[in-house]
Amino acid sequence: MWMKAWEHAVLDATFPVETGKDGLKQGLDRVCEEATAAVARGVKVLILSDSAASVGRVPISSAMVVGAVHHHLVRLCQRTRVVLVVDSGEAREVHHMCVLVGYGADAIYPREVFRTIAVLDVETQTACNKYVKALHKGMLKIMAKMGISTLQSYRGAQIFEAVGLSKDIVDRCFTGTASRIGGETLQTFSASSAVYHTNVFISLDPTTATMLRNPGQYHYRSNEGSEVHLNDPAAIAKLQEAARTNSNGAYAEYARLVNELNTRCTIRGQLRFKTDPVNRIPIEEVEAASEIVKRFCTGAMSYGSISLEAHSTLAIAMNRMKGKSNTGEGGEAMDRLLPNEDGTPNVARSAIKQIASGRFGVTALYLTCADELQIKMAQGAKPGEGGELPGHKAVGEIAKVRNSTPGVGLISPPPHHDIYSIEDLKQLIFDLKNANPQARVSVKLVSEVGVGVVASGVVKGMADHVLISGHDGGTGASRWSGIKHCGLPWELGLAETQQTLVMNDLRGRVVVQTDGQLKTGRDVVVAALLGAEEFGFATAPLIAMGCIMMRKCHLNTCPVGIATQDPELRRKFAGTPEHVQNFLFLLAEDVRTYMAEMGFRTIQEMVGRCDVLEADPTIAQTGKELDFEKILLPSRTLRPEAAQYNVVPQDHGLDSVLDRKLVELCAPALEDFNIPVSEEVTVTNTDRAVGCLLSHTVTKTYGAKSLPPGTIHINFTGSAGQSFGCWVTAGIVFEISGDCNDYVGKGLCGGHIIVYPPTKTEYLCEDNVIIGNVALYGATSGSLFARGRAGERFCVRNSGAMAVVEGVGDHCCEYMTGGRCVVLGSFGRNFAAGMSGGIAYVYDPERKLQTLVNKEMVELESVEEKSANERELKSLIQQHRRYTKSSVASRMLDNWKTSLANFVQVMPTEYRRAMAELRASEAAAAKNRRRTLTGPTSPTDGGKAAEGSKMRTISETGESVDIEDAAKKPLARTQRPTHVSDPQKKRGFIEYGREVVAYRDPKVRSADWKEITSAPKDAPELVKTQAARCMDCGVPFCHQKKTGCPLGNRIPEWNALVYAGDYKSALKALLATNNFPEFTGRVCPAPCEGACVLGIIENPVSIKQIEVSIIDRGFEEGWIVPTPPKVRTGKTVCIVGSGPAGMAAADQLNKAGHTVTVLERADRIGGLMMYGVPNMKCDKVDIVQRRVDLMAAEGVVFKTNITVGVDTTLAKLRKSHDAVLLATGSTVPRDLPIPGRKLKGVHFAMDFLKDNTKSLLDSNHADSKYINVAGKKVVVIGGGDTGNDCIGTSVRHGATSVVNLELMPENPKERAVDNPWPAFPRVFKFDYGHEEVAAAHGKDPREYEVLSKEFVDDGKGNLAGIRLVNVKWNNVDGRWKMEELKETERVIEADCVLLALGFVGPEKKLSEEINLEHDQRGNFKAAETDFVTSEAGLFAAGDCRRGQSLVVWAIAEGRGAAASIHTFLTAV
């Protein structure tokens, strides 16, 4: 409360928008001057606030202003006299808070976050508290991984590197921060801030004013200005097409897309190759792709993080190519580790075994079966990041290979919890080299400032291989803050590593690899030129196998069976090794192309040749002072005589290790499994990793077959060095009289270690340390008995070993996941931190454990008498006495009842739960086994089953099924519900089936002109359940404009809102991109559903239905009311044509305040929607006219019965309006010019449909001014929606028969190979018209592969029939050719033919007036980017510009043209 007396001052952190590029500098100068003055006045609290931001004032970046003021005051030696508080509308995420504190903020008020929470439909204080709690946890996580304990130490620490900021910004605001490539200056940042600010306050479409635009930071979004993602939908689709079809063309298109994306978001994208035709060589002289792929590796994705199917598919693919796959930190199943029975290599074995720091599932067998052993100094590609495998993934075989308890989550804390220094790392490298001398040891580092120095230390520590991971690689185990903001581009880290290693003459001793979103041959070439010899891929191979970047890896709901352990979802996995091989070979060929262009014959020649790279001047860098001089500095100039790539192996000094002698001594046991060996050996503290090479030799000799217990028994005397007994395998006993250094029993995997002091020792053993720190690190099985105290972190990460010790230091049982730990003496603080499995028994007569234990994950309890735990504890203490002659153990056993009362049992809560579930599961399984039936028995057969009867069991559905049948195939899943009262969204796509609002009965609906479906809003339960099926994809293809929705509809957002019951917000999200959802939801063929990710594995989300339910609900609730613009601009626009394109443009331009007049030559507004689409698909009065009336009420002027070129001229319109838009549609129908075309009874489909609707609206068909086909034999030629509408209309007229002729073959029931997802599915459909004919006449009206040859005359000029012939389509050299089958020629009866063959373009009469240019297809020529024609002020949009298309494309065209016209008008 005393701080209330502190004087405070609010400093305005904004600048006037009109100051433009100089505004930011002037604003910072002013704030710093005001801060100086305030401190001089004695102000104690400075509040840096951007709350004055408005139309005329631009907020200064919070990070910049706090950094500038902080450093300004530091330079004046005034910083300690004042508190800096940031009042920010910008700060909202954990990273934002960390940056502000890291650059000097003492307190932060995230103003706009709290204001936003206040308007949400939640309890404000509770929500605010949760938000603050989340920020606290996030910041603590970041501080922890950086090794910082207090906020005071973090404040002002500046543990960041800037990427893309120039020297003037860094010097002014972030003094001392590294920024190696320059970038934005104060002026360019100021100018771009002003432009962004203006765009926020001046929006073309006021309907979006209350909708926050999703910037696509975390999930891909297709809206303009969203974050660029390398894995965008188009690139993913092309990669998968290339991988599945091995298509060079598809790969080339994929590479083009990715390389273009690189120019927008990566450093490598800003570079280009220096090519000289003189250096160019024939591609035949370049190293073969089969050699290049040997340098490829897949990323460290563990079995557990991804499915067994995906994991093994990667391994098989890489082994076939002689590349390397990586196990990740999760072990590997036995059936994949071992060679085949005939001795051949196991094709599913991963060559790289990641051991992290040796913590999960690392055994001697695992290490022996490796070509490379990888130590990781980072989780994924995140420096200092930890990770976690949730319990629902750590089950079954996954738990088994990790030697953990099924159902208990596994924690991977930051690596510095395990590796504290370069010395520790060097020891681990030495241990691993002893564990497998033939494998190279790799160390994974992350690209960050100073990584070159770290890499030098790693090479001096004798690593054979160094991996530099880029920041945009990653891990599903990281927090979003880590994924988005940790690490640096691999280009920076790789260049620094290459230069530093060469400078120190270390480069020749190590192989360097890089990874991090390497996706094309160009990426690989740039990496090689910067210094990499090998190249890692992770995301791209996963995508090749089917990954669609759901970004739901942590939820176990991956729909394509990759990042999941759900058996049902794993069955959806459709990837093959060939897919991965195809992709990587295509990429290797891409590499060869670049190599030939630059004159390199081998990859080795390219390594470190960054002199052939330069900044690409063709990429616009206006105002950005990007400087690549530092990363493009050729390393050979730093030390010309030094090697530029790996030329010599490391000397690990294995020839002189003690284990060489042990292997000789144990030769009898190695030659004969049954011969025991017992030897005595002297050991010194320079003997490190004793037993490691011996265990490797045993494992290499006998494989998974363990030696009999006690086969090899070595008695040591002396003081053992580090890692005594590491990875000692079963059948080996190490007994040492003396003491041991750190890491005793590291990775113990079945062996037994006994440590006790020399027999003549006079000191009390229990009071003295006999083994060092970190004993039993990562042990999986075996035992350790130590008569004396252990150092700190005893049993850390133990997952299966039994241990008894007479005292421990701090952090005992840290991150322990299994096994038993008995402590018979004193103990330190932080006991059981992170302990999730196993049990610890602690002798605690003074009851100190209660205050020293970390209770976050464990509970303390007594050991009950006569329990299994008591028996286990007593047995371990008895063994300890027997092996070590421990006096402490003797005293306890002699007075066991009293001793037992002083023991405390440390039980992990998750372990207790998992064990209870396991016992329940085993009991249930036993009960089910007892339920197995043997068929009916007879009272006379003595209870025996009747001869020949089948064994039967009970299925999941409760039915009795044959066991033999059940063994042949899995039980079918019961029918999934399609609408439930309370659907769950997380697994909605798994739990619920697709259902749309059904059509009305065909016989009922075909008797009227009402809409064929009932309104979705009348089925709220169904709609909510269907919305729950939306997966909220990380990369949603549904609103990707090329293959999904051209409008970029925010489908995931409004699906989520419908699921939440918030229809009003869903309506806002829907109208933000679509002017007329009531049109698209009824008549659009839904390319969004064709591109829906769920459609890969089953029926897609029913998007159209949800869309209609939202808009209909909006009208029904009265949420949609006329909202005329408040201000008119005085500009006038004339739009010719009132179809969807014209109406959308009119709506947008009217909202922007322009005066809009729409001219329509028909008697009603609506174009296609009024007269092209029949009433039963979209009601003209209730739907179309309702929208027209709404727009008219908002100020749009509609004029009907005006034909431009007749009633007025285009010249007059251009003269009287500031802009004119042509939206006349594609109205010239495609004809069928065959003999008899002029006969009466042959009509264009659109004439038939238009006249029908007009007559229906005018007189309910009483005027007979329409083509009536009642009682006629109707033939519809052509398919599609128009043909189907003709069929449905004919049925309603009462045609006696309806036949539909199509020239093309019948579409397949499922996608063909040449029609890959996410392209619109060309599959067989049974639409409403077909269903109505089938109901009326008993069959589908369609006939396929039929060519019409002649319309037959009845002799009076009337149509009597059609001469037809069947055709066959043949694929000749990749092109389809039609062949007539003459023997099938025939005549069918017809009274009426409707030609539904599409349209060829707009009518020419309009354009001829001013000689408007046309494109090659006959459409009005106008650029897709701005819709401008060859005439100034004249625009074109819709089908008249792009050709016949969908209603969504028409609306998208209208919106795009409106934006262009608005820009044109405001510029004028």
Describe this protein with a few key phrases.
eight-stranded parallel beta sheet; globular
What's the quick description here?
The chain contains 51 helices and 52 strands.
Compile the SSE list and pairings.
Blueprint (H helix, E strand, L loop, with lengths): L7 E5 L1 E3 L6 H18 L4 E5 L7 E3 L2 H14 L7 E6 L5 H9 L4 E4 H9 L4 H22 L5 H4 L9 E2 L1 H7 L8 E3 L1 H16 L31 H13 L2 H18 L5 E3 L15 H4 L3 E5 L7 H14 L2 E3 L7 H4 L14 E5 L7 H5 L3 E5 L1 E2 L2 E2 L3 E3 L6 H6 L8 E3 L9 H14 L4 E7 L4 H10 L4 E5 L10 H6 L4 H14 L7 E5 L5 H10 L3 E4 L1 H7 L21 H4 L6 H22 L4 H4 L6 E3 L8 E3 L31 H8 L1 H5 L5 E7 L8 H11 L9 E9 L11 E9 L8 E8 L12 E3 L9 E6 L2 E2 L8 E7 L11 E7 L13 E7 L5 H4 L5 E5 L5 H17 L2 H8 L1 H6 L1 E6 H23 L20 E3 L5 E3 H6 L19 H4 L10 H4 L14 H9 L22 H9 L3 H9 L5 H7 L3 H5 L11 H15 L14 E5 L3 H12 ...
Parallel strand pairs: 1-3, 3-5, 5-6, 7-8, 10-11, 10-21, 12-13, 13-18, 18-19, 19-20, 20-21, 24-25, 25-26, 26-27, 27-29, 28-30, 29-31, 31-32, 32-33, 38-39, 38-41, 39-40, 41-52, 43-50, 44-45, 44-50, 45-46
Antiparallel strand pairs: 2-4, 8-23, 9-22, 14-15, 16-17, 33-35, 34-35, 36-37, 42-51, 47-48, 48-49
Helix pairs in contact: 1-2, 3-5, 9-10, 9-21, 9-23, 12-23, 16-27, 17-19, 20-23, 21-23, 25-27, 29-30, 36-37, 36-41, 37-38, 37-41, 38-41, 39-41, 42-51, 46-47, 47-48
